[in-house]
């Protein structure tokens, strides 16, 4: 995924989750299971952590509004080493977008 702004790792995780949920909502998907390697993002989404920064609270509010569209919504924490497939897919998508431009 490529952003038109500078993003931290956590912001990238949020943006990817928002993009995925938005697409799934438009496709009328009913059950979502996502995995991420950001302990902060997964912890916030699952209610294990409290949002202390305004930016994190805004992302969390956005996710909460999107997740109401699904019957089942789960976000699982995976070790970074096990998240390589998602990282590879995001790099592939970025590479394809660069070729278009």
Topology:
Elements: H1 9-26, E1 31-36, H2 39-45, H3 54-67, E2 72-77, H4 84-100
Helix pairs in contact: 1-3
Top keywords for this entry?
single chain, 101 residues, mainly alpha, two-stranded parallel sheet, 4 helices
* SS class: mainly alpha
| Low-pLDDT stretches | 89-101
Task: Give the C-alpha Rg.
Answer: 14 Å
The CATH architecture assignment turns out to be 2-Layer Sandwich
Strand order of the largest sheet: 1-2
Strand content: 5-15%
CATH class: Alpha Beta
Please bin the fraction of helical residues. 55-70%
- Fourth-level CATH superfamily: Ribonuclease H-like superfamily/Ribonuclease H
* Tally of helical segments: 4
Largest sheet: 2 strands, parallel
Count of spatially separate domains: 1
Q: Give the SSE order as H and E letters.
A: HEHHEH
Mean pLDDT: 79
At CATH level 3, the topology is Nucleotidyltransferase, domain 5
- Terminal-residue CA separation: 14 Å
Shape: globular
Strand element count: 2
Domain RNase H type-1: 5-93
GO molecular function: nucleic acid binding; RNA-DNA hybrid ribonuclease activity
InterPro entries: RNaseH-like_sf, RNaseH_domain, RNaseH_sf
Pfam family, one: RVT_3
Describe the protein in words.
This is RVT_3 domain-containing protein. It holds the Pfam family RVT_3. Residues 5-93 form the RNase H type-1 domain. By secondary structure, the chain is mainly alpha-helical. Helices cover 55% and strands 12% of the residues. The protein is built from four helices and two strands. It has a two-stranded parallel sheet. The radius of gyration is 14 Å and the shape is globular.
């Amino acid at each position: 995924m490529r952003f038109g702004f500078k993003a931290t790792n956590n912001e990238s995780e949020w943006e990817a989750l928002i993009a995925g949920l938005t697409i799934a909502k438009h496709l009328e998907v009913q059950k979502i299971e996502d995995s991420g390697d950001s302990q902060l993002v997964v912890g916030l989404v699952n209610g294990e952590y409290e949002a202390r920064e305004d930016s994190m609270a805004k992302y969390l509010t956005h996710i909460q509004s999107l997740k109401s569209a699904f019957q089942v919504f789960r976000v699982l924490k995976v070790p970074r080493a096990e998240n390589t497939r998602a990282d590879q897919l995001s790099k592939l998508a970025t590479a394809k977008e660069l070729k278009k431009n």
